[in-house]
Specification:
Elements: E1 3-7, H1 15-22, E2 28-31, E3 40-44, E4 47-51, E5 64-67, E6 72-73, H2 75-87, E7 97-100, E8 104-105, H3 108-120, H4 132-140, H5 147-150, H6 153-175, H7 182-196, E9 200-201, H8 203-212, E10 217-220, H9 246-251, E11 260-266, E12 269-271, H10 283-292, E13 305-307, E14 309-310, H11 311-321, E15 325-329, E16 339-348, E17 351-353, H12 360-365, E18 367-374, H13 391-404, E19 408-412, E20 420-422
Parallel strand pairs: 1-10, 1-11, 2-5, 2-10, 5-7, 6-8, 7-9, 11-15, 14-16, 15-19
Antiparallel strand pairs: 3-4, 12-13, 16-17, 16-18, 19-20
Helix pairs in contact: 3-4
The structure holds guanosine-5'-diphosphate, 6-O-phosphoryl inosine monophosphate and magnesium ion.
The site of guanosine-5'-diphosphate has 23 residues, from helix 1 and strand 3.
Length: about 425
C-alpha cells in the first residue's frame, strides 16, 4: 500500500504528527517537494522534534527515509539537522536516509535573493527566507546545481563559474549587493559534498525496486494545497507542487503505483505569511486560538494567522488531491468555545461562490457564508476513542464529513503520538 499525506490548507496542518503515526506501518517515507521552508513537529514523550528536510519518519529507527528529487536541499540546513538529531542521540546513517542526486541545491545566492526580492516588492509574499523560490527558479531556467553536480568537481566548477558571473552582475547592478567570491562558495560546498556523498542514491530506481518487492511507501507532503504553485493562492504560494500530483515528478514513482491519499486538515484554519484568507479571525478570537493552539511557525517562529474552518477551501483540496481519507487535527484547540462557525460559501458583488474562485480579487475580498454550530465545554485533549468525545464535537466532525463528502478516519486531540482517534 503506497499512500500520500498532504496538507489540505495553507500548511502546518499537523502533517508531521500524522506521518509519524502512519509511518509505523510503512517501510519507506519520502519527501517529494519543498525544502527547509517546511517545519514538521513531532512530540514523543517530553521531547519535541522539528524536521525541515529530513522526513518525519526518521524517529522509527528500523525504517528508511528518502529525500526525493523534487526537494530542494540546503546542505548547510540539512547538516545542521543531522547535528541537532545527533545531539539527541539519533545518528542518521546512510542505510536509514537516502538522498536523490537529482535534488537541486540551495546556494547562498538563493537565500540572499529571497530577501532582496522581498525587500523590493510592494506586495510581499512573506516567504520563509530560505531561498526556496530562487532555487526552484534556477531549476526551471536551467542554471540550477544538483547534488550529483556537487559530487563531480569539474561539473560543479563549470556551473558555479557560469552562475556567479551572472549573479554577480545582476546582484550588484540591480540590488547593490556585494560580489560573491568563487573560492569561498566552491570550498564550502565541496565540504558539504563530502559529508553528504554517502547518502546520495538514485532514489527513483531504489523506490521502484522496493515497491516491486512489495514494500510500502508513504509520501510526505510539505506546505499545503493552497501554497501549491499551480492551485494555491498565487502569487502567495510556495514554488513547488505540494499537491499529490507533485509525488510523481518529485520521486519518479508513477501514479499507477499510488494507492491512496490522506489529507491532514486542521479543525480550523491557519496561514503564515501574506495572502488572502477569507475566514480570518478578528483580534479577540485570533488571540484566543493563537495561544490555545500555540500557533507560531515551526520554521520562522512567526505568529500564524488563524480563522474558522473553510469547507470551500478543503473541498477543493479533496478534489485536487483525490483524497480518500481525512485526518482532522487539533480538535482540542476548539474546546470551550460557545459557538463554532464553518464557511460553506463566499459572496462577492452579489454573486455566490461555492467553489474556490480563481480570481485573486474575489478571493481576497469575498465575504464568507457561515453555518454556526454549538461548541462543547468538556475537554477533548488526549481522548483516544471517538465515543468519548462530547456529543457536539462528534456533531462537528460529522458535519465536516458531510460538507466535504470524504470520510474522516483520524481525529487528533493532542500533539503526542497516542492523542489520536482512529474511527475505522
Ligand atoms: P506540519 O507542518 O503540518 O507538520 O505542522 P507543524 O508541526 O508546523 O504544526 C502543527 C503543530 O500542532 C505542532 O506544534 C504539533 O505538535 C501540534 N499538533 C499536532 N496535532 C495536534 C493536536 O491534535 N492538538 C494540538 N493541540 N496540537 C497538535
Ligand atoms: P509546512 O511543511 C506554512 C509559506 C510562507 C510564505 C509562502 C512562501 O511546515 O506546512 P517560501 O519560503 O516557501 O517561498 O514561502 O509559503 N510557507 C509555509 N507556511 N507551512 C509551511 O510548511 C510553509 N512553507 C512555506 O510562510 O507565505
Ligand atoms: Mg509546519
Amino acid at each position: 500500500m503506497n499512500c500520500v499525506v498532504v496538507g489540505a490548507q495553507w500548511g502546518d496542518e499537523g502533517k508531521g504528527k500524522l506521518i509519524d503515526f502512519l509511518s509505523k506501518d510503512a517501510d519507506i517515507t519520502v519527501r517529494y517537494q519543498g525544502g527547509n521552508n517546511a517545519g514538521h513537529t513531532i512530540v514523543v514523550g517530553d521531547e519535541k522534534y522539528v524536521f525541515h528536510l529530513i522526513p518525519s519518519a526518521i524517529l522509527h529507527r528500523n525504517k528508511v527515509c528518502v529525500i526525493g528529487n523534487g526537494v530542494v536541499v540546503d546542505p548547510q540546513a540539512l547538516i545542521a539537522e543531522f547535528d541537532e538529531l545527533a545531539a539527541k542521540g539519533i545518528h542518521v546513517t546512510p542505510r536509514q536516509l537516502k538522498i536523490s542526486g537529482l535534488c537541486h541545491v540551495v546556494m547562498p545566492y538563493h537565500r540572499v535573493l529571497d530577501s532582496l526580492r522581498e525587500a523590493k516588492r510592494q506586495n510581499k509574499i512573506g516567504t520563509t527566507g530560505r531561498g526556496i523560490g530562487p532555487c526552484y527558479a534556477d531549476k526551471v531556467t536551467r542554471c540550477g546545481i544538483r547534488i550529483i553536480d556537487l559530487l563531480n568537481p569539474r561539473v560543479f566548477k563549470a556551473k558555479l563559474e557560469d552562475n556567479l558571473n551572472e549573479k554577480n552582475e545582476t546582484y550588484t547592478k540591480v540590488f547593490g549587493y556585494r560580489d560573491y567570491k568563487f573560492d569561498e562558495i566552491y570550498n564550502e560546498y565541496q565540504r558539504y559534498a563530502k559529508r553528504l556523498a554517502p547518502y546520495v542514491t538514485n532514489t527513483a530506481v531504489y523506490l521502484n525496486q522496493e515497491i516491486d518487492k512489495g514494500k510500502s511507501v508513504l509520501f510526505e507532503g510539505a506546505q499545503g494545497t493552497f501554497l501549491d504553485i499551480d492551485f494555491g493562492t498565487y502569487p502567495y504560494v510556495t514554488s513547488s507542487n505540494s499537491i499529490v500530483g507533485g509525488v510523481c515528478t518529485g520521486t519518479g514513482v508513477s501514479p499507477t503505483k499510488i494507492d491512496k491519499a490522506v489529507a491532514a486538515v486542521k479543525a480550523y484554519t491557519t496561514r503564515v505569511g501574506e495572502g488572502p484568507f477569507p475566514t480570518e479571525f478578528k483580534k479577540r478570537m485570533l488571540e484566543k486560538i493563537q495561544s490555545k493552539g500555540k500557533e507560531f511557525g515551526a520554521t520562522t517562529g512567526r505568529p500564524r494567522r488563524c480563522g474558522w474552518f473553510d469547507a470551500v477551501l478543503v473541498r477543493y483540496s479533496t478534489m485536487i488531491n483525490g483524497i480518500s481519507e481525512l485526518a482532522i487535527m487539533k480538535l482540542d484547540v476548539l474546546d470551550g468555545l460557545e459557538k463554532i462557525k464553518i464557511c460553506v460559501g463566499y459572496t462577492y458583488r452579489g454573486k455566490t461562490f461555492d467553489e474556490f474562485p480563481m480570481d485573486s480579487e474575489v478571493i481576497s475580498k469575498a465575504k464568507p457564508v457561515y453555518i454556526e454550530m454549538d461548541g462543547w465545554s468538556e475537554p477533548t485533549a488526549g481522548i483516544q476513542k471517538y465515543g468519548q468525545l462530547p456529543a457536539n464535537a462528534r456533531k462537528y466532525i460529522e458535519k465536516l464529513e458531510k460538507l466535504l463528502k470524504v470520510r474522516i478516519r483520524y481525529v487528533s486531540t493532542g500533539s503526542k503520538r497516542d492523542h489520536t482517534i482512529i474511527r475505522f
